[in-house]
């Protein structure tokens, strides 16, 4: 059974860092576009970052560019999100997700968001002093 388990969330002060992990089981991440999205209370889902399965290109939302770094370890079937210089507006539940790219190659965070096939239960990130 395909499953994601996210971890690494928590409470951090503004300017701090967190590293989220997402371990996949039941399938091999190599063949999927993978990424992260977040959802804050009362707000819509927001794509954060993704890695294309076709060529490994990495995309970031403008709101996190320069502060967040996505990476994957195929040997561990795990994807990571390193988050630095965190701001209160980064507070949200963060979800890892995968796409089979059934509608075509992933060329942006937006194209990833409309092609998500699987996602985890999320991990809470709270940025507050």
| Count of helical regions | 1
Q: Please tell me how large the radius of gyration is.
A: 14 Å
Helix content: under 10%
Q: What structural class results from the helix and strand content?
A: mainly beta
Note the gap between the termini: 40 Å
- List segments where confidence is low: pLDDT < 50 over at least 5 consecutive residues: none
Sum up the overall morphology in one term.
globular
Strand content: over 45%
Largest beta-sheet characterization: 7 strands, mixed
Total DSSP E strands: 11
Question: What is the mean pLDDT?
Answer: 94
Order of helices and strands: EEEEEEEEEHEE
Summarize the structure.
The protein is mainly beta.
Question: Topology, pairings included?
Answer:
Layout: E1 3-7, E2 10-12, E3 18-25, E4 33-39, E5 46-51, E6 58-60, E7 68-73, E8 78-83, E9 92-99, H1 109-113, E10 118-119, E11 123-127
Parallel strand pairs: 2-11
Antiparallel strand pairs: 1-3, 3-8, 4-5, 4-9, 5-6, 7-8, 9-10, 9-11
Fold and architecture overview:
This protein is mainly beta. The protein has 1 helix and 11 strands; from the N terminus they run E-E-E-E-E-E-E-E-E-H-E-E. The strands form 2 sheets. Strands 2, 4, 5, 6, 9, 10 and 11 form a 7-stranded mixed beta sheet that branches. Strands 1-3-8-7 form a 4-stranded antiparallel beta sheet, with no helix packed on it. Strand 4 and strand 5 (46-51) form a beta hairpin. The mean pLDDT is 94.
Features:
single chain, mainly beta, seven-stranded mixed sheet, 1 helix, globular
């Amino acid at each position: 059974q395909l499953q994601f388990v996210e971890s690494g969330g928590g409470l951090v002060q503004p300017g701090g860092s967190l590293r989220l992990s997402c371990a996949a089981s039941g399938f091999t991440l190599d063949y999927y576009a993978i990424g992260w999205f977040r959802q804050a209370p009362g707000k819509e889902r927001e794509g954060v970052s993704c890695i294309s399965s076709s060529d490994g290109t990495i995309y970031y939302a403008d709101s996190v560019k320069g502060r967040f770094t996505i990476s994957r370890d195929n040997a561990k079937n795990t994807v990571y999100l390193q988050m630095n210089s965190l701001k209160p507006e980064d507070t949200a539940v963060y979800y890892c997700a995968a796409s089979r790219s059934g509608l075509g190659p992933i060329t942006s965070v937006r194209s990833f968001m409309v092609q998500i096939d699987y996602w985890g239960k999320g991990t809470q990130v709270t940025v507050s002093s």
